[in-house]
């Protein structure tokens, strides 16, 4: 059967491909030190699981409203009000099968053939392919490490054209953990205010996995004049170790939310009723799980950043949020392995780590920024220590 052109335009997610490769090698009996993981290594909190079981026992096993249960929308409304002082009426909130689905539907609802979407690189691997799948044109803007991997107003201005529909802002970002301060958001808003055709999709999925004293700001609150041009997305996957429950949400202009709901009504009818009950418990229940896991991530972040910074040829900046380190390996490219192969690219470097030391990482080019690799510290300290030692050994053998 021939498939539609949109399928040929996109590739499977490199993180899913890396995870699959790790599974294959493990199935062949290899012990892999897996640093590709894009999800918490903690179990979902017990009170969240209990809420799901209670929902099943109450018979909440049927379709829900297309935009989510009133209870979950109320919990999301409360979170946005309490955290950011943002007030979204019910019809400006939608719930979907993960933030990923909500983002995809937002693009599907708004992007016509040839519309442009500005994506700062390094970017989460899915954004460009989601744009391509919806007939749009991704406009990738390089944001080098010298700009702390962040979009500057000048680079934003240069990327905008009359066809620009969206800017995607992921803060804290995957893969770098970089986050925009209120001042930096204000500076970007200054550019955006002069281009009324541009909407902003903010992806805040890592907002609670955060290591700085002040909580991470959000564009719609920093610049209220942009509030009706911002679509804020988030979810419970990362904060509450609920990646498999598939609940994400979006808040923004009611026409957009209405269009997303219309698409969702034809696509999935609604997210899982049981997962929605669990998400209510996650958002409204005790939050000590978040504090405890963030403290653990912080310890791992500091440890891995130090171990890798000590490796000659690698450099790393500790992230403000998320559970990834984006490691600069540019100093080792062009070097030769003991087998005599020259490592020309970050992809070859990542393959060398996998083949020589069984350490799995994801190469930077997958995120639009060659010369780096991503390490996830959502795994045990024992694995992290062993993997960092192995990376150091592999690097020391290069000449
Ligand atoms: N946005 C970013 C930046 C992510 O890294 C991920 C997951 O890896 C998602 C969105 C998707 O989250 P969800 O599980 O809610 O679909």
Automatic annotation (TrEMBL):
PROSITE patterns: AA_TRANSFER_CLASS_1
Domain of life, per lineage: Bacteria
Ranges of residues in domain Aminotransferase class I/classII large: 32-391
Cofactor(s) in the UniProt record: pyridoxal 5'-phosphate
E.C. numbers: 2.6.1.-
Keyword Transferase appears in the UniProt entry: yes
Record keywords: Aminotransferase, Antibiotic biosynthesis, Pyridoxal phosphate, Transferase
Keyword Transferase: yes
Enzyme class of the recorded protein, top EC level: transferase
One Pfam family, short name: Aminotran_1_2
Coiled-coil regions listed in the entry: none
Annotated family: Belongs to the class-I pyridoxal-phosphate-dependent aminotransferase family.
PANTHER family registered for this protein in UniProt: ASPARTATE AMINOTRANSFERASE (PTHR46383:SF1)
Protein name, per record: Aminotransferase
Species, as recorded: Amycolatopsis tucumanensis
Organismal lineage: Bacteria, Bacillati, Actinomycetota, Actinomycetes, Pseudonocardiales
């Amino acid at each position: 059967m021939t498939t539609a052109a949109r399928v040929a335009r996109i590739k499977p997610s490199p993180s899913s491909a890396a995870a699959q490769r790790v599974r294959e090698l493990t199935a062949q009996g290899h012990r892999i030190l897996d640093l590709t993981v894009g999800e918490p290594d903690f179990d979902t909190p017990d009170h969240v699981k209990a809420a799901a079981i209670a929902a099943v026992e109450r018979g909440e096993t049927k379709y829900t409203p297309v935009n989510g249960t009133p209870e979950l929308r109320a919990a999301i409304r409360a979170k946005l009000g309490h955290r950011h002082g943002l007030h979204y009426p019910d019809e400006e909130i939608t719930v979907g099968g993960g933030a990923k689905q909500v983002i995809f539907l937002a693009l599907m609802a708004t992007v016509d053939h040839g519309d442009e979407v500005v994506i700062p690189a390094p970017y989460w691997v899915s954004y460009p392919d989601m744009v391509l799948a919806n007939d749009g044109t991704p406009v990738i803007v390089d944001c080098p490490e010298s700009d702390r991997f962040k979009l500057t107003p000048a680079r934003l201005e240069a990327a905008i054209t009359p066809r620009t529909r969206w800017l995607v802002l992921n803060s804290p970002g995957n893969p770098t953990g970089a986050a925009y301060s209120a001042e930096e958001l204000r500076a970007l808003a200054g550019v955006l205010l002069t281009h009324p055709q541009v909407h902003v999709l903010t992806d805040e999925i890592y907002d609670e996995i955060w290591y700085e004293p002040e909580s991470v700001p959000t564009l719609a609150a920093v610049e209220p004049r942009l509030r009706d041009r911002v679509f804020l997305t988030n979810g419970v996957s990362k904060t509450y170790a609920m990646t498999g429950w598939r609940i994400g949400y979006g808040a923004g202009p009611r026409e957009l939310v209405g269009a997303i709901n219309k698409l969702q009504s034809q696509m999935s009818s609604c997210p899982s009723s049981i997962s929605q009950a669990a998400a209510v418990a996650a958002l409204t229940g005790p939050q000590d799980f978040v504090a405890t896991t963030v403290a653990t991530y912080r310890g791992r972040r500091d440890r891995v950043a130090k171990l890798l910074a000590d490796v000659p040829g690698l450099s790393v900046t500790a992230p403000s949020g998320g559970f990834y380190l984006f490691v600069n390996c540019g100093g080792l490219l062009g070097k030769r392995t003991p087998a005599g192969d020259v490592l020309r690219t970050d992809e070859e470097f990542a393959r060398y780590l996998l083949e020589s030391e069984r350490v799995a990482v994801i190469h930077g080019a997958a995120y639009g920024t060659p010369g780096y690799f991503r390490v996830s510290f959502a795994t045990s300290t024992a694995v992290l220590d062993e993997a960092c030692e192995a990376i150091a050994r592999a690097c020391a053998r290069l000449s």
